[in-house]
Write a structure and sequence with these properties.
heterodimer, A: 114 residues, mainly beta, seven-stranded mixed beta sheet, four-stranded antiparallel beta sheet, B: 112 residues, six-stranded mixed beta sheet, five-stranded antiparallel beta sheet, 11 strands
Chain lengths: 114, 112
Amino acid sequence: GAGVSQTPSNKVTEKGKYVELRCDPISGHTALYWYRQSLGQGPEFLIYFQGTGAADDSGLPNDRFFAVRPEGSVSTLKIQRTERGDSAVYLCASSFGTGRNEQFFGPGTRLTVL
Amino acid sequence: SQQGEEDPQALSIQEGENATMNCSYKTSINNLQWYRQNSGRGLVHLILIRSNEREKHSGRLRVTLDTSKKSSSLLITASRAADTASYFCATDLSGGSYIPTFGRGTSLIVHP
């Protein structure tokens, strides 16, 4: 079976532009997480979905960041008016059930804002 | 703020030696997980240990959990060059939401 996939693998954009990052979780996994990881740091939680709804979005840094999961499967992380400080690797993970289980991570999207 | 913190930040050993990494956390947890990350991309789950467990094994990996000291250790025995990676602990807060919180990681280099 396929693992978690993320597209694109790399994204270079200019400051002020809008970007969308996509995550395809493992089929049947109801929990989906987005993290952001800067160099030398651990993954930083952004948002957690249980099904279609955002169960916890307390990690989103500001209102430029938004994520959706309209059918409870694929999720899109959207960043408006990108800033250089948004440059990082954006990781998606999914897990079965409530989320207190093993998370399966995608390979990440490396976002570079020039 | 980060719940879990790994120690040491960096570890360099020779192939065949054992590697021990530690994780300390601040508040009560439901479970603690260890992950490995190669080349700054996707993380791979290694072991999950629940708060009522004290030790778990998986192949060359041994994880211990001491809830009284709020700490965990990951031991890799007979290390190989392929074990070179960053290792993270993630804690899931007791009574909190289901959000694993990661530390900054230990960077392990195993020299062949």
